[in-house]
Every structure is written in C-alpha cells, then in structure tokens.
Amino acid sequence: MSVLDAHADYRTRIQAFAREHVRPVAATIDRAQAIPPATIDALVAEGLFASGFPTRFGGTVERGPQAADAWIRHGLLHEALGYESASVQGLLNVHHMAGSAIVRGASSEQKQRWLPRLSSGELLAAFAITEPNVGSDAAAVETWAEGEAGRFVISGCKQWITCGQIAHLFVVLTGSDQGPCAFIVPRATDGLRIEPIHDMLGCRGYQLARIHFEGCSIPAEHLLGCPGLGLSYVAAAGLDAGRYNLAWGCVGLAQACLDASRVHTSSRQQFGGPLSDLQLVQRMISRMMTDIHAARLMCQSAGELRGRLSPDAVKEAAMAKYFASTMVNRVAYDTVQLHGARGCGPDQPIERWFRDARIMEIIEGSTQVLETIIARHACQRPS
Q1: Are both 133 and 118 inside the same structural domain?
Q2: Domain range holding 278?
C-alpha cells in the first residue's frame, strides 16, 4: 500500500472541502486581493488551523510513531489547498510557520498562552523576517530590540509579510546587543503600524503588508528563547516548516495545471484530431506527470523524516521545496503554452496559476539560497 493509499480517506475529505469552500472564490480572491472572512471561517470550522501543531495544544501531531502520518496528512492539506488557491494555502502556511517558531522557542508558559489559540484558529499568526533592505540575508536584519527595565522596545520595518493585513500576532526577528532575537508581538501593540501592499505579480490573496515598529514596547516575556538564538533556533524552525508546506502547495498547483492540460488537449481539435495525439504535446504532458510524481515523492519523504525527528528532515524539506518550486514553474509555463491564447485570458485560471507559480521560487528561500543550503549539506556529509 502506498503512502497516499494509507491516507485516501483523509485526502478525499480534504479535497472535497477545498472544492466546496475554496474553488468558488479562488478567482475572486485574486481580483479582490483578499481572502473572504467566510473562507477563513470555514477553515476554522473544519479544524484546519490545528494541522501541524502538537496534540497537547489542540493540534494534530502526536509524539511517537504516529507523527509521520500526521505530517503526511498535513502535507496533503497543503496540496489540496494549493490545487484550488495558492493564496489560501499561503494563509495556513504562514500561520504554521509562526506557530512552528513558537513551538520551537517558547517557554511552557508561552506555549500554554498562545498555541491553543493558534490551533483553534482564534488567532491568526504571521511571520516577520524580511525587510526593505534585507531579504535572504536574515542575519543582517535592521529592526532592532532595545532592552530596558523588563521590557523590549522594537524599532524598524518588515516588508512583504504574508497575511500582515489581517494577522492577530507576529513572530518578529530583530537584532539586539546580544544577537538575533525573536519576539511575539500582538497586533494591538502600541507603536505597531500596518501598511497594506497591493498589486503583486501573483498570490494576490496573501494580503501582504509592511509592518512598522515605531518604538513598540513589549514585555520581556514575549521574547522567544534566549537572545542570540532568534535566527538559528527560533526563526529557522519557521522557515523549515514553510519550505515543507510550500513544497506540497506547489505539487497541488502543478496538479491543477496538469489536470486542465489533459482535459484541454484531449478535447481541442487541431490538424484533424485532438492535440493529445501530437507527439510534442505528449512529450509536454509526460514531462508534467513525471515532474509532479517526483515532487510528491520528495514531499512524502520529507514528511516521514519530520515525523521521525530525523536530522536529515531539514535538508529534505529544502530539497523538496527547491525541486517543487522549480517544477511548478515548468508545468505552469507548459500549461499556458498548451492552452494558447485561452491560457492568457481572464476567463480561465491558467494565467493566475502562471503568476502564482512564479512566486514559489522566491518565498521561503529563493531557488539560489536553497541551492546553497543543499550544497552545504552535501559538503558536510560526503558520500
């Protein structure tokens, strides 16, 4: 029995949920550049915000041998959402990224305070690392935290923050005199100002924002972990989770492209027969199928290693995200080509998929950054 066969019931259920609650609004999300509250409410009602969090805080991941199954189901959730809307998949992705950083770095008291509310969907979390002058080089963040009398005062700006327009709290990476720090910063904190960003190339429902920290004063107990470990320990957990989730999301988006291409090429008549009879078209379809299958297997492997707490899990997630994000761009490109002018018009989702796919090679570690990370793993453990 394959991994997917073992989770066939869950996969069928989550795909049906996504078809019912996400597909009808996917185009509207892209045009309005926002996810409707009713869609978020449906995710909450279905309990999907809990996916990937520990069971002791209301989540789905148990300690022990069942953990791998939970991570595979978590991946299938992101695949199903990615199939219908990359923007909706991104909302749960960033929520889990921030939550994973809290799971990794928080004290027992912090976990009890925040994680049940994140698992239930009462609170939506966002992950704030990138800045106007700092992207992949997260160690060089300019946002600064100054400690004073049991509090920290944060000043600076974060940019391109997914769900920044609607999140209830932020996990924020800063510099400090003691090294990188990570903090939980509630939206209602005085001095926090949110500036929406619109008209991005793709994933327009991400509801991106610039987050301005204008002397935000927060209690010292909002510090995650110890000063100096904000990047290498706390934020790294969020990035690893994001790469795993996004790899599955790319598989879902690519599968949507393939399914549309198969239907179109089988029904579109050209040169006396369907497009699918042409060998060059068959070559494109076969390449899509093979790429998607390979990416899905890489995601499954990464999920199994996460469940076993393998030291190779971080490398596998990086490899899965690297391959899946480049793969979905090839598949989306060929899908537009196969549909011709129909693939460029507003009456089909093809052009949206093409734009969304392009974003995948940039977020949660660009292709070039991931190549560097993967190569470092190879050099550390020569065969």
Answers
A1: no
A2: 230-380
**What average pLDDT does the segment 96-103 reach?**
97
Report the 10 Å Cβ neighbour count for 241. 26
Report the 3 state secondary structure along the chain: CCHHHHCHHHHHHHHHHHHHHCHHHHHHHHHHCCCCHHHHHHHHHCCHHHCCCEHHHCCCECCCCCHHHHHHHHHHHHHHHHHHCHHHHHHHHHHHHHHHHHHHHCCHHHHHHHHHHHHHCCCCEEEECCECCECCCHHHCCCEEEEECCEEEEEEEEEEECCCCCCCEEEEEEECCCCCEEEEEECCCCCEEEEECCCCCCCHHHCCEEEEEEEEEEEHHHEECCCCCHHHHHHHHHHHHHHHHHHHHHHHHHHHHHHHHHHHHHHCEECCEEHHHCHHHHHHHHHHHHHHHHHHHHHHHHHHHHHCCCCCHHHHHHHHHHHHHHHHHHHHHHHHHHHHHHHHCCCCCHHHHHHHHHHCCCCCCCHHHHHHHHHHHHHHCCC
pLDDT of residue 5: 79
**Does residue 351 share a domain with residue 246?**
yes
| Residue 303 shares a structural domain with residue 246 | yes
Looking at the structure, tell me whether residues 355 and 369 fall in a common domain: yes
Check pLDDT > 90 for residue 380: no
Q: Is the pLDDT of residue 381 over 70?
A: no
Angle at 209 between CA 205 and CA 213, to 5 degrees: 155
When divided into structural domains, the chain yields a total of 3
d(Cα 249, Cα 84) in Å, to the nearest integer? Answer: 10
Write the CATH number for 48. 1.10.540.10
Asked if 28 and 155 sit in the same domain, the reply is no
Last residue within a domain, chosen from 224, 240, 258: 224
Q: What is the mean pLDDT of the chain?
A: 95
